[in-house]
Specification:
This protein has about 375 residues and is α+β, with helices and mostly antiparallel strands. The chain folds into three domains: about 110 residues; about 170 residues, 2-Layer Sandwich (Alpha-Beta Plaits), CATH 3.30.70; about 80 residues, Double Stranded RNA Binding Domain (2-Layer Sandwich). Helix content is about 50%, strand content about 20%. The protein contains ten helices and eleven strands. An eight-stranded mixed beta sheet has the order 2-3-1-5-4-9-10-11, sandwiched between helices. The radius of gyration is 27 Å and the shape is flat. About 5% of the residues have low confidence.
């Protein structure tokens, strides 16, 4: 432990002045203020100011105790001071780590964390089994959403004869949805014996998941002249289920070539609104990824890339094991997780990514 370096690092408590500034700002009423954002900032800086004051005091005690050891002639007092010095060293190291975790947590937070999301799941390799796996994943996220009090609204879907999904796109509405699900994007792989497999062979199938923060009109400005809007007759299962009106909507964003569609309701206006919400979120997600790639902080960019790795997770049915390949962690409650009990897994992955960033900071001597 380099006490001189730490003393210099914590020579001032800038967080305390930020606390005072935020308290004054919150005390002045204004309809334009984002109180929830200010409250979150105040909570962070208050915690940081307290921890900083604690490490400043510990560093001062360390220096006083070191001086006592140098000047004290009583052997018993000297021995007690040496033991106290060791305790103070551990305390300072612990406080320094706590402060680093606070700062990393702040950096790790996303401005979109409190937003609702657009969830897209598409069957990949594996034919009907992949479509069934896509349906399993949608059920997992739907059940998890229900547990959290979030609302799930299907925007568009393509159902197979076997009851699986070729694709399903849904709007999940609630508080902190993106914060909890943002690391689910990527390719999910399942290893299991299909019900149609007579020889008992294990098949591997995949499905891709995309999580995009919901974008409002203020987040993405879309020029109406850049849109090609088409209406058509929605598909159906036949008989009374067929939608006989031209209610389905397909929108093409000409500059990017992005195509979105919706036919989930019998009302053209509602389908167009849902399709536009999907288009905004895709454009916002594209813009966000471009900005991350341009960021000066390459550590966050690198960590961010690993979060969105191609193959992120394997669901192994024979071993009842789920493994996340980005953080090298496994869980052995596969059935419970697929039924929507995935908060522990989400928390473990989030903590692992934060630990990676913290380790990089410590290696850089920050």
């Amino acid at each position: 432990m380099d006490i001189d370096l730490l003393k210099k690092k914590y020579s001032t408590n800038t967080a305390q002045s930020k606390v005072t500034e935020l308290e004054q700002e919150m005390a002045q009423p204004s309809p334009d203020k984002d109180i929830s954002s200010l409250s979150a900032d105040l909570s962070y800086y208050s915690d940081l100011a307290y921890q900083t004051s604690q490490i400043q005091k510990a560093i001062q005690d360390y220096e006083d105790t070191s001086l006592l050891i140098e000047t004290e002639k009583d052997l018993e007092l000297k021995e007690m001071a040496t033991e106290e010095l060791s305790n103070l060293e551990e305390k300072i190291t612990s406080l320094d780590t706590t402060i680093k975790k606070l700062v990393v947590g702040r950096e790790f937070a996303d401005t979109d964390d409190n937003k609702s999301i657009i969830l897209e799941i598409r069957a990949g390799a594996g034919g009907d089994e992949a479509a069934l796996f896509a349906a399993d994943l949608f059920r997992m996220y739907s059940n998890y959403s229900t547990h959290n009090g979030w609302e799930v609204q299907i925007i568009t879907s393509s159902v197979t004869e076997g009851g699986g999904y070729k694709e399903v796109v849904a709007h999940i509405v609630g508080k902190n949805v993106f914060k909890n699900l943002k690391y689910e994007s990527g390719v999910h792989r399942v290893q299991r014996i299909p019900v149609t497999e007579s020889s008992g062979r294990i098949h591997t199938s995949t499905a891709s998941v995309a999580i995009m923060p919901e974008a409002k009109e203020v987040d993405v400005v879309i020029n109406p002249g850049d849109l090609k809007v088409e209406v058509m007759r929605a598909g159906g299962a036949g008989g009374q289920c067929v939608n006989r009106t031209d209610s389905a909507v397909r929108i093409t964003h000409l500059p990017t070539g992005i195509v979105v569609s919706c036919q989930e309701t019998k009302h053209q206006a509602q389908n167009k609104e849902k399709a536009m919400a999907l288009l905004r979120s895709r454009l916002y997600d594209m813009k966000k990824k471009e900005e991350m790639e341009k960021r000066a902080d390459m550590r966050l960019s690198q960590i961010g890339s690993s979060m969105r790795a191609e193959k992120i997770r394997t669901y192994n049915y024979p071993q009842t094991r789920i493994t996340d390949h980005r953080v090298k962690l496994s869980w052995f409650n596969l059935e419970a997780i697929l039924n929507g009990d995935l908060q522990q897994m989400i928390d473990d992955i989030n903590n692992a990514f934060q630990e990676q960033l913290l380790e990089q900071k410590m290696e850089d001597g920050e």
